[in-house]
Amino acid sequence: MNLSRRKFFGRSVAGVAGLASIPAIVSASIAPEKKNNKFSLFEKEGTVLFQGDSITDARREKEKELPNNPQSFGSGYAFLAASFLMNALPEKNLTIYNRGISGNKVFQLADRWQKDCLGLKPDVLSILIGVNDYWHKRAGKYDGTVEIYENDYRALLQRTKENLPDVKLVICQPFAVLNTSAVDETWVKPMKGYQKSAKKMADEFDAIWVPFQEVFDEAIKHAPPTYWTGDGVHPSMAGAQLMAEAWLRSVE
User: Fold this and answer.
1) CA separation, residue 146 to residues 30, 132, 150 (Å)
2) Is this model's pTM higher than 0.70 or not?
3) Rounded to an integer, what distance in angstroms lies between the CA atom of residue 26 and that of residue 66?
4) Where is the SGNH hydrolase-type esterase domain (predicted)?
5) φ/ψ of residue 120, rounded to 5
6) In the CATH hierarchy, which fold is given to the domain comprising 3-251?
7) What is the C-alpha to C-alpha distance for residues 208 and 8, in angstroms, rounded to an integer?
8) Residue 233 contacts residue 138 (beta carbons within 8 Å)
9) What is the pLDDT of residue 34?
10) Which residue from 62, 92, 93, 218 has the highest number of Cβ atoms inside 10 Å of its Cβ?
11) DSSP letters along 78-102, please?
């Protein structure tokens, strides 16, 4: 091996050695709860539903929309998290759906809620929504506000609990990662408003909270922002794995 190749491999190994593992990054952001029975949230023969926008959608097929089906899940964090649950909990025989749709804001979830949530009767419902409520406003395609987001979100969750009083809720924090193709410093203050409202909903409805922003903030200490997400919103392969790990750690 010549000297230049030796130097290249040496630098590569050093870079990999300095990169914390995804489980370690998540552990630095989410303290695990001590439970005798992990994943007790999920009951035998239970139904789990992932809801949200393009981050959850991840280019899934929308014709058949089958449960426990890779094509119907797309390639994002929902697919990875669902795959883990099915591998770790085969005795529970879970039915898991992904009904995220690209571009959705809260009011658009509400428009399709009967078909894409209530009719499926989930026992566990996970929702990640909010980035489009800001991004589309920023782009001049929507005139919503943080107050509208919060009020629409509360109404959606109230409707859900009225129809499914025993449903267990998982509320995911909307996030944006700086120094990427779409996200810069001007996102920080307005996004905090949407994040605060989402956390308020989690508290009001006794939901499990998934702190995606904090997880990505920790992740960029170990690798560049674009390693995790090209545009600051849609995760890369590494970002999707990071999100799945954070979601699983939050619900375990």
Assistant:
1) 26, 12, 6
2) yes
3) 30
4) 52-242
5) -85, -15
6) Rossmann fold (3.40.50)
7) 45
8) no
9) 62
10) 218
11) HHHHHHHHHHH-GGG--EEEE---T
Number of Cβ atoms within 10 Å of the Cβ of 81:
25
Return the percentage of the chain with pLDDT > 70, whole number: 90
Question: Of 157, 183, 179, 187, whose CA–CA distance to 170 is shortest?
Answer: 157
**Cα separation, 90 vs 180, whole angstroms:** 39
- The whole-number pLDDT of residue 38 equals 86
User: What span, in angstroms and rounded, lies between the C-alpha atoms of 88 and 82?
Assistant: 10
Answer yes or no: is pLDDT of 251 > 50: yes
Query: What is the DSSP secondary-structure string of 21-63?
Result: PHHHHHHHHSPPP--SSTTTTSPTT-EEEEEESHHHHTT---S
SS3 139: coil
d(CA 145, CA 63): 33
What is the per-residue pLDDT across 140-197, written as a single tens digit (0 to 9) for each? 999 999 999 999 999 999 999 999 999 999 999 999 999 999 999 999 999 999 999 9
Question: What are 99-156's pLDDT values in tens digits?
Answer: 999 999 999 999 999 999 999 999 999 999 999 999 999 999 999 999 999 999 999 9
Instruction: Say how many C-beta atoms besides its own lie within 10 A of residue 238's C-beta.
Output: 15
